[in-house]
Specification:
With 316 residues, the protein is of the alpha+beta class. The protein has 2 domains: 43-206, 2-Layer Sandwich (Beta-Lactamase), CATH 3.30.450.40; 210-312, Orthogonal Bundle (Arc Repressor Mutant, subunit A), CATH 1.10.10. Strand 6 and strand 7 form a beta hairpin. The protein has helices at 2-15, 24-35, 51-60, 62-79, 105-111, 121-124, 128-135, 183-208, 241-247, 260-264, 272-287, 292-299, 303-312; strands spanning 84-90, 95-99, 139-142, 155-162, 168-176, 213-217, 226-230, 235-239, 258-259.
């Protein structure tokens, strides 16, 4: 009866003109039912890629997986004892890596929350991973908010992960198998998921530009990873997804090389990037006892570049 009720709710919501139908959840249910032709009462489990297909997908994101592994361990250490598993997926919603406790492993395997499973919205309807990737935003899909009735026992908290080129490359998921997990607890876990996703994104960005200087600033949103990669001549050569949005650099296009000073500007109050650069220069000079040559060497730049930066920031 519960399955029938959930199926009826989904179909009636999609077909109605109520506020629920035009909500974000209603829009996802509509995509699942109308665009993807899915049946909310379907009992078939998620599709799975074969071993070779999984190997190829992992290989394509080898650096990301290596960088993400300790972050996944850390996140699982925080949520694993509460009946949660941690999943890392690619941009197609295929699970590449998983962390789950031995006592809950069979449950998650039965639900398809395991490596190789495909959790795109096109195949699984509204769900944490698929809807996160479809809408490119952090989501919480709590129990009956799932499209398929068979998925309503789980709560899923997800955040997207963007690559060093600004393109969406995957999602980080925490899913719970506990029936007593409340929506408020899910929201708390979601905050940690978002923070971990941004940490992975920043670690991956830094690894992609090993010889560059990384400028970091706050956008006012704690979840944003606002980073620029700058070469020895102060030319911007890379930017995270959040930085691309903040500075109008294009979501995932190649960045046109331009001086960091032109991008950040000098008018008004100093930007977060300028404050970070000013602090870095002052630290280097202090450690060098005011010796410009030694400070430039410590920063890995020429003395001329150091003088140029000091002048631009009005530092004596």
């Amino acid at each position: 009866m519960a399955q029938l009720n959930h199926t009826d709710v989904v179909i009636e919501t999609v077909q109605s003109s109520s506020a629920a139908a035009v909500s974000r959840l209603g829009a996802s249910w509509r995509r699942s039912l109308v665009n993807h032709g899915l049946d909310p009462s379907n009992q078939r489990g998620p599709d799975r890629v074969d071993a070779n297909g999984l190997r190829l997908r992992r290989s394509a994101l080898d650096r990301l997986m290596t960088i993400a592994a300790p972050r996944l361990d850390q996140l699982f250490g925080l949520v694993g004892n509460s009946g949660c598993c941690v999943l890392l997926t690619d941009s197609d919603g295929v699970v590449l890596d998983q962390r789950a406790g031995s006592g809950d492993a069979d449950t998650f395997e039965g639900w398809g929350l395991c490596t190789g499973a495909v959790w795109s919205e096109a195949t699984e309807g509204t769900n944490g991973i698929g809807t996160c990737l479809a809408e490119r935003r952090q989501v919480v899909i709590h129990r009956s908010e799932h499209f398929f009735a068979r998925n309503t026992a789980m709560s899923c908290m997800d955040a997207p992960i963007y690559g060093a080129d600004g393109k969406l490359i995957g999602a980080l998921d925490v899913s719970s198998c506990r029936a007593d997990q409340t929506e408020s607890i899910s929201r708390l876990i979601a905050a940690q998921v978002s923070q971990t996703a941004r940490q992975i994104e920043q670690d991956n960005f830094r690894a992609a530009f090993p010889g560059a200087r990384i400028l970091v600033a706050s956008s006012g949103e704690a979840a944003d990873a606002l980073l620029l990669a700058v070469d020895e001549d102060d030319i911007v050569i890379g930017a995270t997804h959040a930085a691309r949005r903040a500075f109008g650099l294009g979501a995932d296009a190649a960045i046109r090389p331009q001086p960091a000073s032109d991008l950040l500007g000098r008018s008004g109050e100093a930007t977060g990037f300028e404050r970070a650069e000013r602090a870095a220069l002052k630290r280097a000079l202090a450690r060098a006892g005011g010796n410009h040559s030694r400070a430039a060497k410590a920063l890995g730049i020429s003395r001329a570049t150091l003088y140029r930066r000091l002048n631009r920031l009005d530092l004596d």
